[in-house]
Write a structure and sequence with these properties.
single chain; mainly alpha; 3 helices; 0% strand; flat
């Protein structure tokens, strides 16, 4: 039964995270591209060990695409 509770918690957490991301996406001031990168790599129930590094690479790419390359 403990395992069932764990699965239920995971499902609830995923729904909770999805709701937060959806709410942020509805805010006109939210940078949707940045939010997508962060939610893809960091704001997950099981982020990769190098999730921050992956997110930073994608953010750097986004900045370069937007003309922020120096």
């Amino acid at each position: 039964m403990a395992q069932s509770g764990t699965e239920e918690f995971g499902e609830n957490s995923e729904g909770f995270l999805a709701n937060i991301i959806e709410s942020l996406g509805q805010n006109e001031e939210t940078d949707i591209s940045l939010l997508e990168i962060i939610s893809k790599h960091v704001v997950t129930l099981s982020p990769a060990a190098d999730a921050i590094d992956q997110a930073l690479r994608d953010i750097e790419t986004l900045a370069n695409e937007r003309g922020g390359a120096s």
